[in-house]
Amino acid sequence: MAETDLYPVKRALISVSDKSGLVERARRLAKAGVEIISTGGTLKALTEAGVKARDASEITEYPEMMDGRVKTLHPRIHGGLLARREERGDVEAMASHAIPQIDLLMVNLYPFEEAVASGADLKDCIAKIDVGGPAMIRAAAKNHAHVCVCVEGEDLDAVLAAMDRHDGQTPLALRRKLAAKAFSRTAAYDTAIAHRLAGDVEEPARDYFTEGGPRLSALRYGENPHQKAGLYAVAEARPGVATARQVQGKELSFNNIADADAALELAAEFDAGTEAAAVIVKHANPCGAAVAGTLAEAYENALAADPVSAFGGIVALNRTLDAQTADAVARIFTEVVIAPDADEAALEILSGKKNLRVLLTGGLPDRTQPGWSVKSVAGGLLVQERDIGRVTQKDLKIVTERAPSESEMADLLFAWTVVKHVKSNAIVYAKNRATAGIGMGQTSRLEAARLAFRKAEEAARENKWDAPATEGSVCASDAFFPFADGVQAAIEAGATAIIQPGGSIRDEEVIDAANQAGIAMVFTGMRHFRH
Ligand SMILES: NC(=O)c1ncn([C@@H]2O[C@H](COP(=O)(O)O)[C@@H](O)[C@H]2O)c1NC=O
C-alpha cells in the first residue's frame, strides 16, 4: 500500500446518531469545498439547517430499509471508502460501478452503551447494535493511507484544523492516529455488546478477554510522575470511584483513585442500614477501620487505630457524610473523602479545605456483584473473579475447647472482613469493632503479627492509652498459620480469639497453642489472599 503523506479531502460521508455539533462542522466542511453524503436523520438535520448534502440512498439506489438496519451496507459506499487510490484496478472498479470516492468518514454509533446504562431490556439493547456504522469505520480506518476516519466531533475538528494548515489536505500521521482511535472505538463498542449478551447467558464463553471502554479522565501521571496514566470505563459499571462525582478539591491522582477504591470497597462490605462504617486507607491498605452506631464515632475509632498513618489518608464512608463526621475529618490532613452522598452542612464544612477532594458515588459498590479483577504481567493479563467470598457466623468451625463469646464473635467477623482488604501476609487485631493493629504486606505471617502489634503499641503511645488496644482483642489472619509461632505472637499481643481459614498440615500444633493459652479459635474454610 503506497502511502501518501498529504492527501486531499474532497468528499465526506457523515452518518451520526449524536447530532450535537453536526451542523457547524458540516458547514465548515462545505465551506472548504467538500461534498457531503449523508444518511436519513443526519441528512434531514443538515438539509433543515441549509447545509447541502447528498442522500446515501441516491448513491446506493436502494432506500434505507428494515428500520435503518440497512442503509450504508452497499458496495457503492464501502467501495468508495476501501478503494486504493494508487491501484489501477480499484480506480477502474470505482469508475465502472459508479462508486464515489469517499475521503472522509464521520460516524458516531447507535448509543448502545447508553441503552445498557439506562437498563433497557435485551430486545431494545439489540436494536441499538450498530452494524453499518462500525462496518464503515473499519473500512475507512483500514484505508487510512488515504481516508480520514472520525468517530467523535473532536476528531473532525482535528481534520478541519489540518485541512486549514495544509490547503485542504490531511497528513498521514493524523489519519493513522485517527484510524487507531477508530479501531479502539469499535473494539470498546463490541466489548460492551459482548458483555451485555454474556450477562444473559448462564455460562458465558471466556475464550477472549475484552474489557475497557472510553477514557473517563486523562490523569496527570501514574503511580509516579514519569508514568503516563488514564482512568477508563468498563462495560459493567458499578457505583464507585470511577463513576463518582467530584464535588470539590484538587484534581484526582492515580494513587488517589486506587486508594479511594480500596477504601470504598471495604466500607461497602458493611450494611449501611444497620451500621456506620469508616475506613482510612494509605497506600492501598487500610490503616484504620471501624463500625459504630454513627459515622462520626466510626471515624474517630478508625482514626484512633493508627493516627500517625492516617495523616494524608483516604477516608471512605458507607453512609451520607454528615456535619459531625465532616468536622472530624477536616481536623487532620486528608487527601480524599469518598461517600455515597453528603449533606449540605457537611459540604459547607469541607468547603473550607480547598485541596481536599470530595467524591460522591450515589451508592455503594455492590459487594455481591461478580466481576473481573485484572492485573498485567509481562506479555499477558492475569484475570480472576473479584473476591466476593464472604463467611457468616454459621460457616465458622470452632476448633478450640473454648468457643468465642458473643462480643468476640462480633469482633472476629469484623476483623475477618477487614483482613480481606489488607495486602498479604495480613494480620488484623480488632476490638469493639475497630481495628487495633494491622500488619500488612509482610513476607512472613509471623512478621505481619508482630508488625500489627507494633502499630498497636504506637497507637497507644499517640492516644496516651495505658495499654495497646490489642489487649483483649481478636485476631484475623488472611491465610492459615503455617506454624504455631504466629498464634503465639497474637497471644502475646493480648488476643483472646483468632479467626483464620485453617487447612495447614500443622493445624493441630496451632490449635494446641490456642488451647494452652485458653483462647478461642474459629476456622473459616476460606482464604483471602490479596497481592
Ligand atoms: N445499517 C446501516 O447501513 C447503517 N449505516 C449507518 N448507520 C448508523 O446510522 C446512524 C445515523 O443514522 P441517521 O443518519 O439516520 O440518523 C449512525 O449512528 C450510523 O452509525 C447504520 N445503522 C445501523 O447499523
UniProtKB/TrEMBL annotation:
It holds the Pfam family MGS. GO terms for biological process: 'de novo' IMP biosynthetic process. The keyword Ion transport does not apply. Its EC number is 2.1.2.3, 3.5.4.10. It catalyses: (6R)-10-formyltetrahydrofolate + 5-amino-1-(5-phospho-beta-D-ribosyl)imidazole-4-carboxamide = 5-formamido-1-(5-phospho-D-ribosyl)imidazole-4-carboxamide + (6S)-5,6,7,8-tetrahydrofolate; IMP + H2O = 5-formamido-1-(5-phospho-D-ribosyl)imidazole-4-carboxamide. Coiled coil: none annotated. Residues 4-151 form the MGS-like domain. Pathway: Purine metabolism; IMP biosynthesis via de novo pathway; 5-formamido-1-(5-phospho-D-ribosyl)imidazole-4-carboxamide from 5-amino-1-(5-phospho-D-ribosyl)imidazole-4-carboxamide (10-formyl THF route): step 1/1; Purine metabolism; IMP biosynthesis via de novo pathway; IMP from 5-formamido-1-(5-phospho-D-ribosyl)imidazole-4-carboxamide: step 1/1. It comes from the Bacteria. PROSITE patterns: MGS. One of its GO terms (cellular component) is cytosol. CDD domains: IMPCH (cd01421). Keywords: Hydrolase, Multifunctional enzyme, Purine biosynthesis, Transferase. GO terms for molecular function: IMP cyclohydrolase activity; phosphoribosylaminoimidazolecarboxamide formyltransferase activity. InterPro entries: AICAR_Tfase_dup_dom_sf (IPR024051), Cytidine_deaminase-like (IPR016193), MGS-like_dom (IPR011607), MGS-like_dom_sf (IPR036914), PurH-like (IPR002695). The IMP cyclohydrolase activity resides in the N-terminal region. Belongs to the PurH family. This is Bifunctional purine biosynthesis protein PurH. The gene is purH.
